[in-house]
């Protein structure tokens, strides 16, 4: 899951969260110059930068205005979940 908030100064707070037992893939990577605020386990931030959110982990980034990645949403907050099994209903 990815939750993000646009701050009053244009920066963006992003929280990557995976409560599942398996890693989750994410295509919404933090900006290269994003500031890591917290990772719940060592190595989780590096994994997110590589496109994977480790099981049972949370990573929080602050991205400065102008380098916030996906600027397609002007909403102050957005929540996105990732389908990790390819859409299979098995």
Number of spatially distinct domains: 1
Q: If helices are DSSP runs of H or I spanning 4 or more residues, what is the number of helices?
A: 1
CATH architecture: Sandwich
> Topology as H/E string?
EEEEHEEE
Which secondary-structure class do the elements indicate?
A: mainly beta
Fraction of residues in H or I helices: under 10%
Radius of gyration, whole Å: 13 Å
In the CATH scheme, the class would be Mainly Beta
Average residue pLDDT = 82
- The low-pLDDT segments are 70-76, 84-90
Q: What strand line-up does the widest sheet have?
A: 4-6-2-1-7
Number of distinct beta strands: 7
General description of the model:
The chain starts with a strand and ends in a 10-residue tail after the last strand. The protein contains one helix and seven strands, in the order ββββαβββ. Mean pLDDT is 82; it is low at 70-76 and 84-90. The chain has one helix at residues 44-49, and strands spanning 2-6, 12-18, 24-25, 35-39, 52-53, 57-63, 77-80. It has one domain (2-66): Sandwich (Immunoglobulin-like), CATH 2.60.40. Strands 4-6-2-1-7 form a five-stranded antiparallel β-sheet. The protein is mainly beta and 90 residues long.
